[in-house]
Amino acid sequence: MSQQVRGVVALDLGTPVTVETIVVPDPGPGEAVVRVQACGVCQTDVHFRDGGIPGTFPILLGHEAAGVVESVGEGVTDVAPGDFVILNWRAVCGVCRPCRDSEPEFCTSPRTASTPMTLTDGTPLGTAMGIGAFAEKTLVHAGQCTKVDPRISPQVAGLIGCGVMTGFGAAVTTGGVRPGQSVAVIGCGGVGDAAVAGARTAGATTVIGIDTDPRKLEWAKGFGADHTIDARDTDVVERVRELTGGAGADVVIDAVGLPQTWQQAFYARRPSGTLVLVGVPRPGATVPELPLIDFFRRDGAIRSSRYGECVPSRDFPKLVELQLTGRLPLQDMVTEEIGIDDVETAFARMRDGEVIRSVVLL
């Protein structure tokens, strides 16, 4: 039978979130109900609240989560009640062109639950990234549940479900960072720090963190940055070149997504290097005008990275193992632990750069 739980909802575009009573139905075929233990506060949730990412209001927010499977619907075999799981927003469909071509990381039709959760008056809820995990329990497609080693804390495990995977994958998978290479990361928030840590884990010998906030530059050092650049008073391109013997970085990751940071990344990479855009651009943002000859002269690659080219069943267990063996200090990303009533305040703290991640405990 359906259950009533508390959840954080954006009732309308741009309005402060509120805690509402959510009706969670029994799982249908291919679905699972998960008891959420922890959920990170991510900028993507703000994008949903404010319309930067299209969604249907009211929206149950939260997507960077871990918890325990409570019940499953007909036909579910990959997870079972009692399993500790990280939730993901790329439950691959298996039938689209990328999936058929053995490229599930580019799946164009990821699966979500077909049965809606509702408010108590029956109003259907949209869900952030098809998850909706700022709630005591949530209903998802079973493919959105990735079973992992339960020794990892829920606070840390949840971050793997979005921000960590996105930044780490931008460096290691999309950027293809190799031992001995140089890497520059523009924007040292949660995703940028995960990219810094990923580059270090992959064996980069020169890792450069770039930001306009001194606190974030200090955070980047903690995740493996050898050098930092304060973009407020330094020519980023020239300084990256100085730190890389004049050539530019082998891989430059733009974890901000502004036209000016993309342009910095373009010119800060060496001529045959790789630019990775992982920061989400605002609607209407455009690539700055650049001389076409500059594109022609730089053979390398210009790539975007959505979710770090994630395949959850492949990547989440690896990241958990790296954390448990001390090779990836993800626990340092948890700046504070908060309650479900504190999400709007956490949004403000994130906007002001006061935290790497606030994590809601449920």
Please, could you describe this protein's structure?
- With 362 residues, the protein is of the alpha/beta class.
- The protein has helices at residues 43-50, 97-100, 154-174, 190-201, 214-222, 236-243, 259-268, 292-297, 312-324, 343-351; strands spanning 3-10, 18-24, 31-40, 59-60, 64-72, 84-87, 118-119, 126-127, 137-141, 145-147, 182-186, 206-211, 227-230, 249-254, 269-277, 301-304, 334-338, 357-361.
Assembly type of the chains comes to: single chain
Radius of gyration: 20 Å
Shape: globular
Mean pLDDT: 95
How many separate helices?
Answer: 10
In the CATH hierarchy, the architecture of the largest domain is Alpha-Beta Complex
Q: Strand-and-helix sequence, N→C?
A: EEEHEEEHEEEEHEHEHEHEHEHEHEHE
Kindly state the percentage of residues in helix.
Answer: 25-40%
**Biggest sheet descriptor:** 7 strands, mixed
Decide which structural class fits the backbone. alpha/beta
Pfam families: ADH_N, ADH_zinc_N
Domain Enoyl reductase (ER): 14-360
Family: Belongs to the zinc-containing alcohol dehydrogenase family.
Protein name: S-(Hydroxymethyl)mycothiol dehydrogenase
Strand and helix map with partners:
Blueprint: E1 3-10, E2 18-24, E3 31-40, H1 43-50, E4 59-60, E5 64-72, E6 84-87, H2 97-100, E7 118-119, E8 126-127, E9 137-141, E10 145-147, H3 154-174, E11 182-186, H4 190-201, E12 206-211, H5 214-222, E13 227-230, H6 236-243, E14 249-254, H7 259-268, E15 269-277, H8 292-297, E16 301-304, H9 312-324, E17 334-338, H10 343-351, E18 357-361
Helix pairs in contact: 3-4, 3-9, 6-7
EC number: 1.1.1.306
Domain Enoyl reductase (ER): 14-360
Family: Belongs to the zinc-containing alcohol dehydrogenase family.
